[in-house]
Specification:
This protein is of the alpha/beta class. The protein is built from eight helices and seven strands. The protein has a seven-stranded parallel β-sheet, with helices on both faces. The longest helix is centred in the middle third of the chain and has 29 residues. It starts with 7 loop residues before the first strand and ends in a 7-residue tail after the last strand.
């Protein structure tokens, strides 16, 4: 028995970094992880690694900015498992798919639109595709991933920060709209996390600098976020909805 015994959870952006850690954690707690990623081969690879270690997983290619693709993701999940219990809206342009940096004046309009299409519209399209299956069974949990930067106004990436602030508003409205179906919606906001598989020396120095500003003075790892995600997906949080939880070692207090 595990915390997510028999639960089917879709994780977008599940092929890399923090998303991959969520998938491994779900499988570890006896859930079925649907590894959904724009890189289909990587998604299959994570699913295979989970299966090889005795867990249950399905790899699915998805472009969260395309509704037909999101619907196909939901259909493949239902074909394989017959239900959907959880959704982690984790796919975003930031690290695995890098975001441009610059002042609000220098960010291009195309880059602004690209970020919003994935980081904001993508949540909405995935929810539209997945929620009907949850409504049929009158249960479910959605975890939307925001960022510490929405609270501290991190500079140099206005488009990214605005997109992650939008996640919070989206979660609150969705929680009210589907609460009557016993579906919970919460927001998890990570701090700066070492999510690259092979970080550069410069990246490590940046992470160390950030760590020095926290109450808990160490670099945040993907695994640091898994426990809170599992809590929100599990029945332990059955009366928690519309909330934001910051997991950042005390970098920002909310």
């Amino acid at each position: 028995m595990g915390l997510l015994d028999g639960k089917v959870v879709v994780v977008t952006g599940g092929g890399h970094g923090i998303g991959r850690a969520y998938c491994l954690g779900i499988a570890r707690e006896c859930g079925m992880a649907v590894v959904a990623d724009i890189d289909g081969a990587v998604a299959e690879g994570v699913a295979k690694a989970i299966a090889d270690s005795g867990g249950k997983a399905l790899g699915v290619k998805v472009d969260v900015a395309n509704f037909a693709s999101c619907q196909e993701m939901a259909k493949k999940t239902l074909d394989a498992y017959g239900k959907i219990d959880g959704l982690v809206n984790n796919a975003a342009i930031f690290m695995s798919v890098p975001a441009e940096k610059g002042s609000f004046q220098t960010i291009t309009e195309a880059e602004w639109d690209r970020i919003m299409a994935v980081n904001v519209k993508g949540l909405w399209l995935c929810a539209k595709a997945v929620v009907p299956a949850m409504q049929q069974r009158k249960q479910g949990s959605i975890v939307n991933i925001s960022s510490n930067m929405a609270f501290n106004g991190g500079q140099g990436m206005m488009h990214y920060v605005v997109s992650k602030a939008a996640v919070i508003g989206f979660s609150r409205v969705l929680a009210r709209e589907i609460g009557g179906d016993n579906i919970r919606v919460n927001t998890l906001a990570p701090g700066s996390t070492m999510s690259e598989e092979h970080p550069t020396e410069d990246a490590i120095k940046n992470y160390e600098r950030t760590a020095s500003t926290r109450i808990l003075k160490r670099i945040e790892q993907p695994e640091d976020l898994v426990g809170t995600a599992l809590y929100l997906l599990s029945d332990l949080s059955s009366f928690v909805t519309g909330q934001v939880i910051l997991v950042n070692g005390g970098a920002v207090l909310h």
